Amino acid sequence: MQNSHSSTFIYKLQISLKEGSSMTKINKAWFCYALASVLSLGGALVGCESTPPASQPEVIASVTFKIKVPNSTPSEDEIFMISDFDDFFNLDVIEKYTATREEDGFYYLEVPQPNVDHFYFLFARRSDERLKEVAESGKLRPDRFYQYKGADEQVEITIENWEDFPTDLKLGDTVSPNVHQVADFNMPQLGRTTDLVIYLPPDYQSVSTQKYPVIYMTDGQNLFDEFTSFAGEWRIDEILDKEIAAGTMPPVIIVGIYNGPKRANEYIPWDFGFMGQPEQSVADQFIDFIQETLKPYIDSNYRTLSGATSTGIAGSSFGGLFALYAGITQPDTFGMVGAFSPSVWVNLGDAKYPGIKELVTAGDLSAQLRLYMDGGAEEPPAIDEMRMMKRLLNEQKFPEQQLMIVEDPTGGHNERSWSARFPVALKWLLTADS
């Protein structure tokens, strides 16, 4: 399973390195140093310094966090913040970000503002080891996000659970009965197996002649089951059960594909890497798997509408980038694309691996492709990237009626936000021609 922190920090790196960024050189160095540390590269990243900066940015404001912890939190344990702008991996200096417990039972932590406008963070506690906060279910929670307001502020935080606290959640507890699992499905193009999770409409068994459109989705373990997710679930089964029953969503089959141990390699369409650590993309092989092995299996074993106009590909982050790439390059297979917070920033500037932007400007975009993209205000670069992609598509005369771009004013780079936007995306994709 993909290490969730690796994927998170790869995403965060783009905040400081993308063109036109307002991030300071100091913060760029911290991001680079953090990513090198989490990936255990032992060397510098391309375009990055290999050591952290020696000085800190000027403080211009502060935020005070008022923190409510679970009642079972040991009173002798320290509560502290881990963040992406300062000393994220240096546990010897955590006292700088340690909260103080007051008589009202809350913990308080004042964090001065360095010369950045936002940061990502989580809370942890120190017992015999560092123990991070998690969701109430006991699963990993997305990083928190704070946007400075330019003045002192107090923010209330509720920590739902700690990673060492027990939970009663079990496999399948949050899964609808019409979701089926296929374990150890062979992927000959990639030399491994995967698990599939397949959502069937509620009336699939009772209406024996109807055929349905199909959406293939990446990161399948995050779609239906809180237990199997590594960052929270999308709740797609609950959403579809409700919408289909209400008649507000056409019935559809969703095929979720679990990611593998090298998620980035399978989703990023071009070779990538860091100094001394080259990584080879196998995204084309992943597309071959869907086209040559998975789709024939689904079409043979389920009642599907198998044409391109009834077949979609969707995903988030790197998975969203993969969905864009698959739809643009294989429109005869995938007529619908759902790209949630796609990592279009992945662009090495190499003529051989130019990135999704150059792929769009090269032309040859299918006018039949239905393309949905989104981004949230709490992942600031995503908004700029969506606007850039819209401009490029408009320059290529991509039909406006085939394009939907959503800017979520409260959305972040997490499953909760993608889940909230999923019904909007799917309704539009499935009814764009009606």
From TrEMBL:
Gene3D superfamilies, per database record: alpha/beta hydrolase
This protein's UniProt keywords: Hydrolase
Keyword hit for Transit peptide: no
GO molecular function: hydrolase activity
Listed name of the protein: Alpha/beta hydrolase
Species in which this protein is naturally found: Corallincola spongiicola
